[in-house]
Amino acid sequence: MRLSTGSEEPAPRGAAAFVRWETGILFKALDRTEEGTAHVAALSHDQVLKDGGSPAGKPSRRARWKQGIERWCHEFEIAPDLACDIGSRRWFRGLATMLGLGAAAFAMGPDFSAVEAATPLASRSRDEFRSQTISPLALGADSGRHMGASPLVRPLANVPDRPSIQLVSTLGQGDSFGRMLERVGVGGADLAQITQLVSQAVPVDELASGTRFDITMGRRSAPGAPRALDSMDFRARFDLDLSVERSPGGGLALVRHPIRVDETPLRIRGTVGSSLYRSARNAGAPVGAIQSYLRAIDKYLSLESDIAAQDQFDIVVAYKRSAKGEREVGDLLYAGLDHGGKPRVQLLRWGKQGEMIASSALTQAQGAPGGMPVAGHMTSPYGKRRHPILGFVRMHAGIDYGARYGSPIYAVADGVVNFAGRHGGHGNYVRLSHGGGLDTGYGHMSRIAVSRGTRVRAGQVIGYVGSTGLSTGPHLHFEAYRGGQTINPAGLRFIARPQIDGKEKDAFRARLNAMLGVQPGEALGTITAPAAAPVAVGREIDRLAQGAAE
């Protein structure tokens, strides 16, 4: 690239010299001072001259037009800050600019018409595409090009049936035994006979959903006829397997296979520690048994203040184990808590309703604390407070328990429902009368589960946590009344009268001693088969063979 100046003579000191590039644009050269030092020229857009122009000449028409636009935009700002000088001419000019640009963007933007993702294919084109794909066998493998039969292909007059088919069928929820056999393909005659045979051992309506049936279907008696059932095996009960087998003569017979079951209760003991629930889980107690234990103990002791870390918990649950290895956990049978080596609470499942009765029920009447009305934590105690909605201080005649929406609410003691419905700021409200002038109330329910006049037992569900009435969130407002006046529900005690009469006392004590006699972990041992009875040997040759074997 070559540089040339506008004149061959050197420029005088202090004068600006212009350099012409071969592109035809003139630039300002170095500035020289009187001392002879050169400085870099400060080039700007205004100092760039097009070819044919001159620093001192008249600008071209295009340059004048461009400079005029730039001067107008500089004098009349078209995009001012709309937060300043609101209502002035400058502000309205900026508003017009914004609206114009927005309208232009909206006009040039895309429309909202539907976009076609793929072109639909005709059936012939679809088949052509499928013929070039490979489909997995698990999906039927129906891809590929279908070809017509050649003259070498001969149609079959008939296809021989398989001699037997092995199937596995499961009894679904809401399904019936008969419909399940019909889906398998059992004929009407076999279906009636099988139902009759199974009913001799166990009612078919009591078969649990999820029961698995291993079925073997035999040959057909005639073309188009249903297959005959050869055998069917299933688990009828925890202690019984049943088999339906076809005899050589063609009839069906029921075969029972009893299963040895050990019903030794499972006893779990341990130290409460920092958490009763975690300690019981670490000891191997099932979750359902722990929940039942906590609900039973909570009616007599406070889980937060009455249980120490050194106390011993004692849980006994119904437990079954079969010789095949299955395990089945039942209901809670005994719940105890020891303090200092002495039993503090002993509860035993008793009666037709399966209630947890305390051993103190054998003695005189005594006071017992009420249970927790809901599984939650206290958020507001009894006493004066500033109302969270009304905003002023007034008496809070109850205790609030925070809990999840829909959590069940339990009756703290036996009683009769004397009110169930809408009750002003309490929302959905239930009030129970426990006798002796003592009542309890439960407010802000999402749903009520009892009606007026119903007799309820301690621990029975009477409703569910909600946020009806004057409430800021899901919680239970629990209150107590004595003689019609509100009292502090904390530490409320109810009179527990003897629940075991004289005829049942001996049986109750025997049952309690049986539970206490179960050793912890005894139910986890191996099941030993009963010893086989010795067979009497009648023939001399058999006695000689037995002696040689010994």
Secondary structure blueprint with pairings:
Blueprint: E1 3-5, E2 18-21, E3 26-28, E4 31-32, E5 38-39, H1 61-75, H2 89-108, H3 123-130, E6 165-170, H4 177-184, H5 188-201, E7 212-220, E8 227-237, E9 240-246, E10 252-258, E11 261-262, E12 266-271, H6 276-282, H7 287-298, E13 312-322, E14 327-339, E15 342-350, E16 355-358, E17 366-369, E18 377-380, E19 383-386, E20 393-396, E21 399-402, E22 408-410, E23 415-422, E24 428-433, E25 438-448, E26 455-456, E27 461-465, E28 475-482, E29 485-487, E30 493-496, H8 502-516, H9 540-549
The count of DSSP E runs of length 2 or more, i.e. the number of strands, is 30
Q: Could you state the CATH homologous superfamily of the domain at 377-496?
A: Glucose Permease (Domain IIA)
Number of helices: 9
Strand content: 25-35%
Structural class: alpha+beta
Instruction: Please compute the radius of gyration using only Cα atoms.
Output: 47 Å
Q: Please give the share of residues in helix.
A: 10-25%
